[in-house]
Amino acid sequence: MSDFVKVWRSSPPFLAVESAEVEHHGRAWTQHRVVVGDGAGGVVMVALRGGTVGLVRVWRPAVGESRLELPRGMREGADPEDDARRELLEETGHAAVSARKLGELDLDTSLVPTRIHVFEVVIGEGSPGPSDGEVDEVVWVGASELPRLVAEGVVRDGISLAALAMWAASGGSSG
Hints:
Shape: globular
Order of helices and strands: EEEEEEEHEEEHH
Radius of gyration: 18 Å
Helix content: 10-25%
Strand content: over 45%
Low-confidence stretches: none
Number of helices: 3
Mean pLDDT: 93
Number of strands: 10
Distance between the termini: 41 Å
Structural class: alpha+beta
């Protein structure tokens, strides 16, 4: 691995641009990468309640639109499952009854070296508690509706798409 050096860093929320001189198979170039937060990565949850999956409607200034996505957030602690449970509660007001790790994904192996931990979480039937106000709305959709929402581009962020693919590959979409 090449030694990356910081060339720019913002104040909170932290974002850094790093560069390294790399060589591979006789070709040399300057590689840049973007480090988000402290580099610990994030979590994303396929939240299940009955036969439905929870999506959150979030205003995303980077694309200038509200989007339906799976609940997600940054890592803050030592245990990714604890972070997933915390983020789920913060964004939806729902506590997870159970959690199953589906795997990990890399946000962008070329530019953004951020590891995302993917969980399936089951939520009880009770009413939600307060959320942190970060999301505009929690939308529960039938699991069988997800392929249509993806095909129509309603759900289209890369993190949600990759997490849903991992969930489907684990047998989640059928059961």
